[in-house]
Design goal:
This protein is mainly alpha-helical. It is 72% helix and 0% strand. It is found in: Cell membrane.
Length: 304
């Protein structure tokens, strides 16, 4: 029982972790993309549809990553090239993704999905408690951990990561030093979109292998909150994703146990937890200001 709960928590946390890590890189470059929800739901419908057509979950995952990156390119073109408002553009991208995915996925409703299988490492997967939890998960779970390690190393141990952070902290000074601010931000935005597409595909191919309209159910917004919760640090994103995953699974088990609390209130717990965490973080203004990229959300036009 305990092992099953831990496994479901890991499964619930994985899409949050992937989407949050992608958005963290985007925001470290100084761009605020509120379109994570839209890119996730487009990744979910694309991954499910391509998998259904080809019979290969891996093709579905690659297609979802590509669609997420393409959607992010649209956001990048509007905000980085045409210098539109980042907040309004991100919200528009979310609305576009929700509407377009509903239209594209209309024929997928009720169709049985093809689940991406778990790894099965002989002997190790059979170990008590940790066997299935550590050695018997799906491949995307391991990829999410590798992404976290890779992003942490990239941001704080490489020259390219330092350059990206400098663009997010002071794009004017970075431009004066000859750094291609717009190019770096395009790459960061595309990485974030690819991660959001992968997170969406995880929902429709692993978490619940089926297509349901609006199946992301606000996870993109939780991912955005997680970046702030983690104060733009990858390892804190990992901890936060598993904390929110535990809250999500905890409310499901509470409903199954018949606890005398309205199911609607229990279902809202992950979102209430998001609000509470953001309120608590906002009270420590010094911690927030120290880690927030100084150029976050600010438009940049060369030589202006």
């Amino acid at each position: 029982m305990f092992e099953s709960i831990l496994i479901t928590i890991a499964t619930a946390a994985t899409p949050l972790l992937i989407a949050s890590i992608g958005e963290l890189v985007v925001e470290r470059s100084g761009v605020l993309n509120l379109g994570v929800e839209g890119m996730m739901v487009m990744g979910a419908v694309t991954g499910f549809g391509v998998t259904l057509a080809t019979g290969s979950p891996w093709l579905g995952i690659f297609a979802a990553i590509a669609v997420g990156a393409l959607f992010s390119l649209l956001f990048g073109f509007l905000t980085l090239t045409l210098v539109t408002n980042q907040v309004a553009t991100g919200l528009a991208l979310t609305l576009l993704g929700l509407g377009l995915s509903g239209m594209l996925g209309e024929g997928f409703v009720g169709q049985p999905g093809i689940k991406l299988g778990n790894l099965d490492i002989p002997f190790l997967s059979d170990l008590p408690v940790i066997g299935r939890l550590i050695f018997g998960q799906d491949p995307v779970f391991y990829l999410s951990i590798l992404l976290t390690v890779g992003v942490a190393w990239f941001l704080f141990r490489t020259r390219a990561g330092l350059t990206l952070r400098s663009v997010g902290d002071n794009h004017g000074s970075a431009h004066a030093l000859g750094i291609n601010v717009i190019g770096i931000r395009y790459l960061a935005v595309m990485f974030g979109g690819a991660c959001a597409g992968l997170a969406g595909a995880y929902l429709s191919l692993v978490y619940t292998p089926q297509w349901i309209e609006n199946m992301t159910a606000g996870r993109g917004w939780i991912a955005l909150a997680l970046v702030v919760f983690a104060s733009w640090r990858p390892w804190r994103v990992l901890a936060g994703a598993y904390l929110f995953g535990a809250v999500s699974i905890g409310q499901l088990h509470a409903q199954a146990l018949g606890i005398g609390v309205p199911s609607q209130l229990l279902s809202s717990l992950p979102y209430l937890a998001t609000i509470v965490v953001l309120v608590l973080i906002s009270r420590n203004r010094r911690l927030t200001m120290v880690n927030t990229p100084a150029s976050l959300g600010r438009p940049f036009v060369p030589d202006r």
